[in-house]
Amino acid sequence: MENKYVLCCINGFKPSEAVIDYGSWLSKKANTTLKLFHGLDTLYHENDSDLSGSIGLGAREDLLEEFVKIEHEQNKLFQKRGKLILEAGKERAQKNGVATIDQCLRKGKVIENVLDLKDKISIAVIGKYGEKHQDRQDQTVVGHKVESIVRAVEKPILIVSEDYQEPKSLCLAFDGSDGAKKALDFIAKNFCFRALEVHVVYVGAENDKIKSDLEEARSVLEEVTISTKTAFLQGEVGEGLNDYISKNDISLLAMGAFSHSWLRDMVMGSLTSKVISIVRKPVLLVR
Fold first, then answer.
1. Which domain CATH number covers 103?
2. What pLDDT score was predicted for residue 161?
3. Which of 139, 209, 259, 280 is the most exposed place for a label (fewest CB within 10 A)?
4. What is the mean pLDDT of the chain?
């Protein structure tokens, strides 16, 4: 992760705490900068100041001026709130023992800003849901911004929702595809994962090809001294992975974000309703 940083996208809501904590863990393990990012994607823009037609006020200039004034005051509040979110995030990261912390407050849509920053990102950490889902008892929902970032940003992304627990083990969903091999390569090459026990698992019937693929994956990991287990799982993919993770008290799930089999279907077919929505542990997607 040389000359790059761990990017934490925070919005001030519940998952942001876990985002900072997991980002802190990654940053310390990789000895790299932690960059805290907050996007101001609801700001009013002066270029949109001709509001007479859109809000039906006609020629009431006094009302239009008052509307613009209110919008500008709201913008100042959004900016102040964003700065406070970043300051609180910095304090939390410092308590976590992170040495180098950058802050980034930007106007514009989150996805556009993340894409602009992507060349310097080693891994991005994002919350599973945002403001709209704060009051839900069932936190299986995946925010629409998360799905947009996953589809657009060609960087490893860690999606988190529940409170931080120091990672001890990792489950790699592996099907022998290019996407799965990229996830395997990322895990093998990054020191963050060297102390973790890695379970390489396949959901489906055993055959000679997949047995060979799993053994090859085991060899790659053991070559860099990562303790490794392999397993075949039965049943529906999402539930099978979730059950295995729960029974074995596994800390993280990793998988290739794009491939040509069931892993591709999970992400591209219905991101919200499949694995990321089912699994409560952090999910690392690698492209």
1. 3.40.50.620
2. 84
3. 209
4. 83
Among 158, 186, 217, residue at a domain's last position: 158
* Beta-strand pair 283-286/157-160: antiparallel
- Residue 154, domain extent: 5-43+79-158
Task: Dig out the tokens for 260 from the structure.
Answer: 């040509």
The answer to whether 176 and 213 have CB atoms below 8 angstroms apart is: yes
Residue segments in the chain with a per-residue pLDDT below the cut of 70: 1-3, 42-60, 129-144, 258-273
Give every strand in the sheet of 228-233, ordered side by side: 101-107, 33-40, 5-9, 121-127, 157-160, 283-286, 252-256, 169-173, 197-203, 228-233
Torsion of CA 27, 185, 250, 248, to 10 degrees: -160
Based on the domain organization, do 24 and 90 belong to the same domain?
yes
Predicted TM-score (pTM) of this structure: 0.84
Do 189 and 248 share a domain, yes or no? yes
At 258-281, the pLDDT tens digits run 544 545 444 444 533 477 778 889
The answer to whether 102 and 35 have CB atoms below 8 angstroms apart is yes
